[in-house]
Every structure is written in C-alpha cells, then in structure tokens.
Amino acid sequence: MRIKCLSNDRKRPNLNCSILADVTMCYSSCCNCQEVCSVWPALRFLQNCQEGLTCMLVFTITAAVLGMFQFGYNTGVINAPQKIIEEFISEVYRDRTGKYITEDFRNLLWSVTVSIFAIGGMIGGISAGTIANRLGRKGGLLVNNIMGILGGALMGFSKLSHSIEMLIFGRLFIGFNCGLNTALVPMYLSEISPLTLRGGLGTLNQLALTIGLFLSQVFGVQFALGTSTGWPYLLGIAVIPAILQLCLLPFCPESPRYLLISKQQESLAREALQRLRSSSQIEDDIEEMKAEEQAHQQEVEITMWQLIKNKSLQLPLLIGVVMQLSQQLSGINAVFYYSTNLFMAAGLSETTSKYVTIGIGIVMVIMTLVSIPLMDRAGRRTLHLYGLGGMFIFSIFITISLLVKFLYEWVMYVSVVSTLSFVVFFAIGPGSIPWMITAELFSQGPRPAAISIAMLVNWFANFVVGLVFPMMLFGFESYTFLPFTALLAIFWTFTYKKVPETKNKTFEEIAALFRREDVININGMNIPRKSIQSGEFLFEDKPVEDCPLHHHHHCQLEELPTRKKNVEVTPNHLEDQL
C-alpha cells in the first residue's frame, strides 16, 4: 500500500512514501503537520485540511479500525448460513445419539449459537475499562487479538471436528473480542486524533463496521461461501483481521494521553505524539493534556461503581448510555437481522429480498462515507437529531407499507425505499456518533469506566433486540415497527434537551459543560459561581460566534443583578467553556 502525500508547497514536487517499508518514519519529510495524506476514499475529504492527518496517524487508524471491521463481520456472518448450520447441528446430534433431534432442541442450540456472541460482547465490553487502564489502549487491542484468533479457529474447525461445542465456544470468544474492540477502538481513536479531525476520524469506526457487515453478506450468499462446505471458511475468516491487526499494531504508538495522564510518562507521550503528528511542534497538545490532568487528578483511578455514584458524572453517563440505546433500540438491528423477511412480508420474492438486503449494506457504506466530512462541520448533536428524526419518519412509512401491502402492488416498492431511507438516516447519525461521543464526554480518569458501562448497555440492548424481535414479528405482525417509532421519538427529545455539542471542543472543555452550575471559568481558573459578587465584570471563555458582538474580536460579560449583557472591551478575551 502506498500513500501519496500532498504538499502545500507548490514549488516542491509531490513525494511518495511507503509506510510498510518504514512505518516508524515516512521517507523524506513529506508527512509533516502542513501536509495531508490520502490513502483511500474515506479520507479524501481531509485533503483540504492544513494539519493533523499524517501518514503515521492514517496507518495507526487503519490498524485500529480492523477491530471494528471484526465486529461488523461477525455480527452479520451467522445469519446467511442459518439453515445449513442447523442441518450440521442435526447431523452431529444424530451421529452422537443415534436419534433425530427435536425441532425445539435444535432451535435452542441455534439460539445459543447466535446469542452467545452478544453475551461474549457484554463480558468484553465490561472488561474494557480494567484492560485499558492496565495494558493501555494499544496494548489491550494487541492482547485481544489472541481471543479473535482463538474464536475464529474454533468456528473454522468445528465442522472438521464434528463439534457443536467448538462452534458455540468460538462464537463466545469472538464475541468477547468484538466487545472489547467496540470499547477500545473508539477510545484509542479519540485520544490520538487531532481536535479538528476527531469527529471525522471517529466516524471511521462505523465505516469499518459497515464494510465488515457488507462483506459478511456478500460472502454468505449461496454462490460464494454460504454452502454446506463453505460455511466453516465463512466463519473462520474472522482470524484474518485479528492476525493482520496483530502484525500492524506493534508499529503504532500508544495513546499519548494514556502515557502522560494515566502512566505519568511524559517523555514517552512526547515521543508518541511526535510520531503521530510527524512534527516536533506538539506543545499545545501536551499543555492541553496537562491541563486535563491537573483538573482531574482526583479521577485518575475510578471504578464503574464510583462513576455511577459520582453525581457530577451522572449526567454525562446518562447521556452516554441513552446514546447507545438510541443506536441499538432504533430498530436498525431488526432491519439487519430480518430485512429479508420484512421484504418478503411486503410482497417481494425471496431472491429479490436477499439482493435488496445486500443493497442495504452498500447504502450503509456509502452513507457512512458521506457522513465523515459532515461530522466536524455540522456537529455530532445536529447529525444525531437529523438521523433520529429521519428514522422516526420512515419507520412510520414502513409500518404503513406493511399494513396496505395487499391493496396496491406498488406498495412493495414503498417498503423498499422506506427501509433504505431508514438505513440512510441511521448512517448519518445514530450509526457512528454513539461510538465516539461517550469517549468525548469524559476526561481521562473516568473515560475507561464510562465506556465499559456504555458498551455493556450497547451489547445488552443488542442481545435483547435479537431475542425479542422474532416474538414481536409474530405478535405485532404489521405493527412491528411501532415500538421503535415510539422509542425514536423519546431518543430525539432527549438528544434535543440534554446532549451537548462536542464539535471542536477539548475533553476539558466538554467536561466543563457539565460543571456550569457549580463553577465558572475565569481567565483559565475554575471559581465557584457563588463566590462571584453581582455587578462584577467577568472574563469568560466564549466562542466568538456565540457572542452578540461576534464581529468584534473580544467581548466582556457584565453580570448584573437581574441580567447579563456583553459589552466590547480591549483584547483580553478567552473562549467560554460554559
């Protein structure tokens, strides 16, 4: 793989560097903070940015998101060969006992095979905080690949060994691997990404996930690996991203934020940051990390239980949890797992329904690519609101199309368009934002514990939807999507009222948003609001665009007994964190 570095200096020819030939330092000095590296279409929108995206950063992100690819692939891979694996289960049972398996027991074994993946994910997710603190973000990902290789190997050799147990335990181990990946990868990416690119690069979590999901659908068709002889290879492919990540990650730096704040190793943090930025000008990043460390020294070691009891962190924790629920309880998993049945219920043939289901994967990948440049322009909160609102509208259209499918032939096309539009709006917001925003809402101390809780909730909700939706499909029939419609309305309202915008804010600035009732930031110092006398002039951090006098460079907030107003003063102004 070759990376083309585009220099801002027009007098200087474009230079090429091969990160696989020398991953620690690119050839020449082509990858400095004033240049942009373009590797694949997902990152082309960043070719106009002036700093931050270096070859080493791209290489590190590519290696890290292989974990999310693993998650996406193993989420969708088990669905296509269902009937074939059920036949395998029946065959093994008959060979062992000499009897034919009952349908109920076979369905039970199949349900265990599918659902144990989510159970492993919950265990991996809740373990992420401890592993991230002890082994580091990169170290945790490296060790986690052992579980990925073990799980993939067990699934791949289950037919050869004639063992249902190997298949089930393989799904458990790969579930643990994916659960840990869903926590560590977003955490790692958020800590190594430059502030101005954090949103767009965070979206690559969802992009890798959707590519994995799409490939699992393609490989699972009958003319590929969805056959009686091909399904072990289909499941065993899981070892490839694990081995690839195990080979690539050793060349990547550890999170500088983890090294400086958690391990107190400033020299190593500087070295890692210089590699990521390909520049020695890293003092701004170091100072920002030190400011966060100083503000949160009491939170260096915090457990999940301490996090839950901490009143000042309960609101961001609630937001993180609800954001995860807005992803999993939006109805998108019902579309992924049962889209073929939904299309058949709307009147399409089985063959056509399978191809439209693959089309859903293509739409997910394309729309995730589209959302990347929007993430740092429109902002997380805005995109999440648009996404939930669009899903709410088209969930109603899906319900209508299921209700009137017998009246008009063209209604089946309304069902397809509504489902694809539902997926489009999911990709714009709820698909990617919950993965990154939980890491953004917390400072270094409570972040691992918060992500562990969020991932536990995410995986548990995933498990519940997979378990309950078939019963909903049987009980509610054409009204199956109405519960999701109601939940989408609730999530939209919560996001509108409670979720802050985190675009272009440092972790400390985001944390300060939740302290606004207790303290006020004046010239860089956190001072209790109650200690300020009425009528005093305060200098507060306030973004220029939020100031009524935004056409001036500076403003001053005058606090009066009954109201506040902004007045122009001489330049001595900081940005408002409130």
Polypeptide structure, described:
It is a single chain. The protein has 578 residues and is mainly alpha-helical. It has a three-stranded antiparallel sheet, with no helix packed on it. A three-stranded antiparallel sheet has the order 6-7-8, with no helix packed on it. Helix 2 runs antiparallel to helix 6, helix 6 packs across helix 20 and helix 18 packs antiparallel against helix 22. It is globular, with a radius of gyration of 25 Å. It is found in: Membrane.
Give a concise summary.
62% of the residues lie in helices and 5% in strands. It has 578 residues and is mainly α.
| Low-pLDDT segments | 1-50, 521-528, 530-542, 548-578
Category by helix and strand content: mainly alpha
Proportion in helices: 55-70%
Radius of gyration from CA coordinates: 25 Å
**Count the strands?**
8
Biggest sheet, strands in spatial order?
2-1-3
Biggest β-sheet description: 3 strands, antiparallel
**Beta-strand residue percentage:** under 5%
Q: First CA to last CA: what distance?
A: 45 Å
Q: Count the helices. How many?
A: 23
Average per-residue pLDDT, rounded, comes to: 78
Shape: globular
Subcellular location: Membrane
Family: Belongs to the major facilitator superfamily. Sugar transporter (TC 2.A.1.1) family.
Protein name: Glucose transporter type 1-like isoform X2
Domain Major facilitator superfamily (MFS) profile: 60-503
